[in-house]
Automatic annotation (TrEMBL):
Keywords: GTP-binding, Nucleotide-binding
UniProt GO MF annotations: GDP binding; GTP binding; GTPase activity
Top-level lineage group: Eukaryota
Keyword Ribonucleoprotein (UniProt): no
Gene: LOC100835696
Database matches in InterPro entries: Beta-grasp_dom_sf, DRG, G_OBG, GTP-bd, GTP-binding_2, GTP1-OBG_CS, P-loop_NTPase, Small_GTP-bd
Gene Ontology annotations of biological process type: cytoplasmic translation
Lineage: Eukaryota, Viridiplantae, Streptophyta, Embryophyta, Tracheophyta
Keyword Transit peptide: no
GO cellular component, one term: cytoplasm
Name of the protein this chain belongs to: OBG-type G domain-containing protein
Residue ranges constituting the TGS domain according to the UniProt record: 290-366
Length: 368
């Protein structure tokens, strides 16, 4: 482990000393590929037994979505969990009060959202310091990350935490690179692009692929990609996750300072202790979770508006709705009647592939 850590440090030192320009792009791309491979090796060791170093805390996933609180020690994560969920997580004025992962559940708009209070991250977490690997491994299982920052020093902490999460393969508020990468048996590296490239050329692409022992592949770009984008696609284990920067303790700063912070994207100001703007935070979490509520209507009865079926906007067909209720329902499915914004008529008869919208009402008609 120490040798891998040393190799990572040596590469990071060399990258910091190397000037960034066209002449060094090839060399830097190669170093980034080596670094990504070493990080993967560090976090998923090949030795058997003893539990992998990349494993998270053993917290059973429950509810309709999972939200993780990530931040440095003593920024108010435990207070926020206590206020939002009523779950007790020890709060104290000293650092590292929370030493394991504390789960709580928020009931919001008919959905049950699991909120995880993760132990405080320290610098170097991505390389295994503290309990960083466990914290960030669990963070990878979340649907949304809340990075909790102290209003007195938010930008410094923000950059450090982003660096730790990025090093662990979590990409915040980003979409997967618009790139096609396909290995093949022979023919060498075929590199094409529909746009002008300012970061990558054929030599750099070949060097990065060679580091991964890939000598035959078709790579097609539809945007101005960087070496990091190519490495992310080759690694294939990156998580693209929405993130909200929750700036806590705003009661300790001036209105002018708050105005400056207000220019940050994906930002929500709160005071967990004084319960300021917690409703605004919940509304923002709901928006970033991107969920839809579907109400069920048993035949001859009124719709059940108390207990909606919660679906992701990426998987919201009638078939997804059936599978969420019971795996056998799709097999017995004949057609569905739908009321709501996804249909023109009220009700409208639809099939399994019909896509539902938020607050639609659905009645399933089974085969006799």
């Amino acid at each position: 482990m120490a040798t891998v850590m040393q190799k990572i440090k040596d590469i990071e030192d060399e990258m910091s000393k190397t000037q960034k320009n066209k002449a060094t792009a090839h060399h830097l791309g190669l170093l980034k590929a080596k670094l990504a491979k070493l990080r993967r090796e560090l976090l998923t060791p090949t030795t058997k037994g003893g539990g992998g170093a990349g494993e998270g805390f053993d917290v059973t996933k429950s509810g309709d979505a999972r939200v993780g609180l990530v931040g440095f020690p003593s920024v108010g994560k435990s207070t926020l969990l206590n206020k939002l969920t009523g779950t007790f997580s020890e709060v104290a004025s000293y650092e590292f009060t929370t030493l394991t992962c504390i789960p709580g559940v928020i009931g919001y708009k008919g959905a049950k959202v699991q909120l995880l209070d993760l132990p405080g991250i320290i610098e170097g977490a991505k390389d295994g310091k503290g309990r960083g690997r466990q914290v960030i491994s669990t963070a990878r299982t979340c649907n949304v990350i809340l990075i909790v920052l102290d209003a007195i020093k938010p930008i410094t902490h923000k950059r450090l935490i982003e660096k730790e999460l990025e090093g662990f393969g979590i990409r915040l508020n980003k979409t997967p690179p618009n790139m096609t990468f396909r290995k093949k048996e022979k023919g060498g590296i075929n590199f094409t692009s529909t746009v002008a490239n300012t970061h990558l050329d054929l030599d750099t692409v070949k060097a990065i692929c060679s580091e991964y022992r890939i000598h035959n592949a078709d790579i097609s770009l539809r945007f101005d990609a960087t070496a990091d984008d190519l490495i992310d696609v080759i690694e294939g284990s990156r998580i693209y996750m929405p993130c909200i920067y929750v700036v806590n303790k705003i009661d300790q700063i001036t209105v002018e300072e708050l105005d400056i912070l207000d220019k940050l994207p994906h930002y929500c100001p709160i005071s967990a202790h004084l319960e300021w703007n917690l409703d605004g935070l919940l509304e923002m979490v709901w928006e970033y979770l991107d969920l839809v509520r579907i109400y069920t209507k048993p035949k001859g009865l009124n719709p059940d508006y108390e207990d909606p079926v919660i679906l992701s906007t990426k998987r919201k067909t009638v078939e997804d709705f059936c599978n969420q209720i019971h795996k056998d329902m799709a097999k017995q499915f004949k057609y569905a009647l739908v009321w709501g914004s996804s249909v023109k008529h009220k009700p409208q008869r639809v099939g399994k592939e019909h896509e539902l919208e938020d607050e639609d009402v659905v009645q399933i008609i089974k085969k006799i």
